[in-house]
């Protein structure tokens, strides 16, 4: 039985960037809920969810920019005969 393996010189694109958004909302929402319980307030869970959404969105954009930059070919490594002479 022959195994088929798809080998490529480029690494697979990560689909984990949206997990920053989900994790941020869940984590900071939970921190807000705990602070609400400790302080006896009712608004910190909403602040935590909004803060987590904002930070998660920021981290997702940063991750996607890194992936896009890694996918683009580098033009600085091209050497021509005119430059070396």
Could you tell me the mean pLDDT?
82
Output the radius of gyration.
Answer: 22 Å
Shape: rod-shaped
Helix content: 55-70%
Question: How is the topology of this model organized?
Answer:
Layout: H1 17-39, H2 44-71, H3 81-84
Helix pairs in contact: 1-2
Architecture overview:
With 85 residues, the protein is mainly α. Helices cover 65% and strands 0% of the residues. The longest helix is centred in the C-terminal third of the chain and has 28 residues, at 44-71. The mean pLDDT is 82.
Summarize the structure.
The protein contains three helices and no strands.
Characteristics:
mainly alpha; 3 helices
């Amino acid at each position: 039985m022959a195994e088929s393996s798809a080998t490529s010189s480029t690494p697979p694109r990560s689909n984990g960037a949206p997990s920053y958004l989900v994790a941020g909302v869940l984590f900071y929402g939970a921190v807000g809920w705990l602070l609400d319980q400790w302080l006896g307030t009712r608004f910190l869970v909403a602040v935590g969810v909004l803060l987590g959404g904002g930070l998660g969105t920021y981290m997702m954009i940063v991750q996607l920019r890194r992936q896009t930059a890694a996918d683009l070919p580098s033009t600085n490594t091209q050497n021509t005969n005119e430059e070396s002479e």
